Every structure is written in C-alpha cells, then in structure tokens.
Amino acid sequence: MDVVNASEPVRSVESELRAAPPHALEATARRLLTERFAAREMTLLLADYGLSVLQAVHHLPHTDDPVPADDGPAGRAFVTQTPVVELTGDPASTTLVHLPITVRGDRLGVLSVRLPAGAADTAAVLRLAEFATALGHEVVTAGRDTDLYLQARRTRRLTLAAEMQWQLLPGRGCARQEYVIGAHLEPAYAIGGDNFDWSTSADHLTVTVTDGMGQGIGASLLTNLTVGALRNARRAGIGLAGQACLADQALYAQYGGKAYASTLLLDFDLDTGTVRAVDAGSPQLYRQRGAAVERIELEAQFPLGMFEETVYEEQTFQVEPGDRLIAVGSGVHGTVSADGDLFGRRALRQTLSATSSMPPHEAARAVVKAVIEHFGSTDLTTDAAVVCLDWTGREASTGGDDPHGV
Prior knowledge:
This protein is an alpha+beta fold. It contains eleven helices and 17 strands.
C-alpha cells in the first residue's frame, strides 16, 4: 500500500481507535499502521512499574522478552521523549522507528513500527509521533475496562498494598506550559503508604505528597483514606488549610490518633508563581535555583489524624521561571546507610545537584536510584517517593500546543 497515505488526517485514526474494543486496541492500531503507513510490523511497549523495562502488550500467557527502559533504541526514545530511527540489519529493506507514547506529560511507553525502506522520512515520522500520542490516550481510556495494559506493566506480581496504591496514583508525570512534573516510587511492586497526587485547573496546580504510617495493607488503607479526604475537600472548593483540616478529622474519626499520615500540600498560582504550603509531617521540600540547592523551611505542623480537630495554617513562598522543586518522603531523606550516614544529610543535595540537567522524570528516578545505592540494597525497608517539578511560569510561556504529549 502506498506510503503517501501517511498524510491522511490523524483525526480519522483517532475515531477508529476510539471505536475499537478495549482489548482489541493493539490489533486495531496494527491494522491502521499497515493501511496508512504500509507498516510491516508493530509492537506496543509499556513501561513497567519500576521504570526498568519496556514490555510488549500481549494477551497472557503470550509474552515477549522485555527491553531496557533506559538503553537501546526503544529505551532512548522513552528517556529522551523523541523518535528514534533504528538502522536494521538490512536497511535496504526495512527501517524500525521507535516513538514515545506520552499522555499529558505521563510517559507510558514506546510504539515500535517497522516501515519499508525509504518510508521513514521526516513527515512520516512526525505523523507516526501523532499516531503514538493518539494511541496513548486510548490506552489510558481502555485501561478502565480491561486489565490487559495493567498486566503488561508488571514484571512480577504486585503486593495487594501496591495494587491499591497504583490505582490511587494519578500517574507518574504531568505537563503544561507552566510546569512539568515527574515522579517516582520504590519499591514499585511492594509500596505501602507513600503517595503523590496532583490536580490542575485554569489558574492553579495542587500537589500533595503523603506518607501513611506503617507498612503493607494498613498503610495503604490509611493513605487511601487520606488522599480520598483531601480530594473530596479540594473538589468542594475548600482552600489548602481547610483540606488539611478535613482530612485530619477524617483520619482521627477512623483511627483515633493511633495512625496518621504525614503530608505536604502545595498550591501554585499559575499567574504569579506564589505557592501556598501546609507542612503536615515529614515530607521535605527542596528548591534548585541555578546551581544552588536549598531546603525550603516550612513550619512543621502535626501529621494528619494525630490529634482531634487540629487547625492548620498556610505559608507562602515564591517560585521563579527556571526553578526546580523536589519533594521527598521520609523514605528518601531518612534512609540510613550501613555505616549510619543519613541520606538527607549530604547525599541528597549532591544527587540533586548532579541531576539538575535531567528532565524531571529522570531526575526523580535518579534520586530514588541514589537512595537504593546509599541503602546498599534494592530491598528498601520503607517507601521512597520523589516528586520533581520544573517551573516555567506564564511570563515565559510562548503559547501554542504543549510539547509534552498533550
């Protein structure tokens, strides 16, 4: 089939993808790529929960060997978020193109497409990139109705607590012209109480980082209640301090002060860069401005649910275009090495400085990797959560479409 059909509008492709049954999305995408791009082969690869490998989507028990998420052509496409054209063993016959699949800044995986020789020109690659983004949106939607794509994300079985937590999380990234967020959690297959959450509106961005007390199912249930209470208050239009107060009351009513959740709440004014903050516990916040890394010292208030009817107060600080904010849970800054050295004392600042040139997704991942190296084992005894936010602000926005897969 003539490759010239690659110029057909993606809108018709989106309509056909939307019409596909959730479990048949991959087959529909393969047919469309064959019809419109003369594709010889297609593989849909999704990143696993630990962001260590990319796995092909297949109906179980049929599986392919995973490929590294940070190495090789597919891994480079995932990390750099740009298409990678791979020269195959016989470049005269086919070309393999790897395209990042990203939805509103949340990196999902990679679409690998084998094209006839000479078909991977610039125009075709750009159209394929649009196709990959359209497919990503449908994968997210289809995931509500089938387990196929969630199963493809795991290299082994999740603990029940981790299953609950991943269903609660909003994703691992979010991007608008004013900011880019990247986040990471470990141990990915056994997390219990750590959580991050965000919500954006026309003029505000709310970000929370929560560390539920304890481990396993108990911590997961506690965090689920915390995040649910915060969302309920936020969606009722209640301010940041009020959100903390209502979540505090919900936790105390359930646990009577025997279990609580340490939470950092942030609300960004997208117009001015003013940030309202409530520090209810142990998560710490750092700001990287130029070459300087400093901890933003906030007034420490009681964790949510520790005491009955605690009154929380907001503080404010300012972010400027070019600033990077990094929020870390206690499992990061409180990790101790075999010789008793606290990660948050020196190693955290060193890691933040070393990762300043990385995009937020990779920076968050690198911080957690450094925690594991500091601890001396991949079997972390506590959850490690990192949220990295690069602030651009509206004054520096140039308008146009979001470059991060929106």
